[in-house]
Amino acid sequence: MSFIILLELGLRLFNFSFSKCDFDPFVSFREEVPVLVEDEKAKEKRVGINPLLKDYFNPISFAKDKPERAQRIFILGGSSALGFPFGEQGAFSEFLSQGLNQLDTGHSYQVINLAGFGYASYRVLRLLKEVSRYQPDLVIIMTGDNEFLEKREYEERIRFLWLREKLAGFRIYCCLKQLVYKLVPEPKKPMLGAHIKWEHYIIEPEMKEMVIKHFQFNLQEMAKICQNKKIPTLFLTSPANLKNFPPYYSLHKKGITEKELKQWADYLFTAEQAMVEKNYELTIMALEEALEIDPEYAYTWFLLGKAELEKKEFEKAKSAFSRALEKDAWQVRTISAFNQAVRELKGQKIWVLDLIPVFSAQSPDGIPGKNVFYDHCHPRLEAHALIAKEIIQKLGEINWIALPLNWEKSYEDKISDYLASLSSSFLAQGYYNLAVEIGINMGLKKLAQEYLEAGLKLDQENPNLKKLKVRLQ
């Protein structure tokens, strides 16, 4: 026993990497690959993205030591926060930086965008632990879109939680855990590694429930870390395109009979024909009959939303579109349970900015669509500028910054000039990125061709767009 106590004290004395043993009852990582790496060779010590992970992030580099008068803000999240399809120059982080530096000349605002393409909350949590070492004055987190991209196995991870949570506080346990990871062969169901694997899989109700619990845990851990380190933190909800992006994949209810399936198909055919003929009463009637037979098929809800929208029944339409999102069998948008978990976060210097009503207010019918999104979840440039404006207003409300009178006009003029300065080739490249993601990776060629043509109008000689046009034909 004395030896064990001495060993534990020795590991603490020599500061054995405790972060490797941070307790997570839901998921485990086989590899310890940091996102941020320090360059010790340069005269000024700088921090950048690990070359192994450069494909997931904007090409970020910043001084390790925060300059005098600087206010350092880190942005964490997925591709919506990253700024896809334009990258950092088209993200709300850029608009936030320009706005803050315009409105408060007494400080130099460093807004560092460390959002990662495909990064789910469990990866954001790990990155937050790295970020906390670099003197943040504020962290802004927007997460929820990527929770179902990687398939995880939970069954073995949730056993003996109370015991594993206690053991995680000991350096000896951490040391043994790392040793086992090195010696034991890779399991049949591998733990998550540094690289993201996009997987199409059926989300069973039990899996969905565990993913929601895992997301809630990750948010609470993020809030706890920031509170313990006294880092002001602003969480954002994640809006989604409801009315102009159909469910990615629809599945019938379990146990549906052949007779029920035939009846359902007949009602759907009737509804689609009536929709073409603009007979929305018949469309709705047929869809309601189809939903009586099978309420799980996401596309039926989406079509019902379209019909209600045509009748200007906006609340009914929004409800149907929301049900379509929730029933989507391959979730690529933030579900309501995730946004609710964000709203429920509390704590000292922990704030929440709900963007759902902000985006809804941009549409006359109150339903977000292609007016604010390029695809399923990625905001348009103007919407990113709006997010930054809402963040600035929130920071003023919580007294994080003192805003001058009539600051909105000053901000809007600054952003208007910035948007006007973006080159045609820059915008065309963004449309190319969209067309590749939507048309090649997601298989939605019709929508991809719209952005392809938009890109070619801006840059007719772009070789990438020309080659992509052939691939999408």
What report would you give on this structure?
The chain is of the alpha/beta class and 473 residues long. It is 49% helix and 8% strand. About 1% of the residues have low confidence.
Short characterization:
By secondary structure, the chain is α/β, with parallel strands linked by helices. It contains 18 helices and 8 strands.
Features:
single chain, 473 residues, alpha/beta, Rossmann fold, Serine Threonine Protein Phosphatase 5, Tetratricopeptide repeat, 4 domains, five-stranded parallel β-sheet, 18 helices, 8 strands
Outline the biggest β-sheet: 5 strands, parallel
User: What's the arrangement of strands in the largest beta sheet?
Assistant: 5-4-6-7-8
Average pLDDT rating? 88
Query: What is the CATH topology of the largest domain?
Result: Rossmann fold
Structural class by sheet pairing and helices: alpha/beta
Number of domains: 4
Q: From N to C, what is the helix and strand string?
A: HEEEEHHEHEHHHEHHHHHEHHHHHH
* CATH superfamily membership of the largest domain: SGNH hydrolase
- Stretches where pLDDT falls below 50 for ≥5 residues? 186-191
Strand content of the residues, in percent?
5-15%
End-to-end CA span: 71 Å
